[in-house]
Amino acid sequence: MVFLKDKIFTHRVSRPRAAIEVTNNQIYTLLIKQLSDSDTVVLEVTMDNVKIVLAGMYLDINQHLGDNLLKIDAIIQHARGEGIILPMDSNSKSTIWHDKQTNARGQNSSRIPNQQSITH
Q1: Residue 26 belongs to a domain with what CATH number?
Q2: What is the pTM of this model?
């Protein structure tokens, strides 16, 4: 394994839509290439012998949400037994995250934690 310090992580394409920047040199990171693509960056982050999975995601409004749910499921499966932080731009609206309304995409997105036994 190669651990990197002070990096900006993206998928190596001409126009990535997801990125994670780590600026703390006390945090060691490992890019999980198998789960990363132009819209998703997945890292294993370690500090003081505590490891979590961090995944930054962009969910394209023109893509079927089900495809992204499969990707989220794979990330959650990878993180079993470890903490996980999963920030995303889901291109959805939900009163759960203080929007004024909930659209169909927001209804489906808000079910992710319950389906995976994780919390918001």
Answers
A1: 3.60.10.10
A2: 0.79
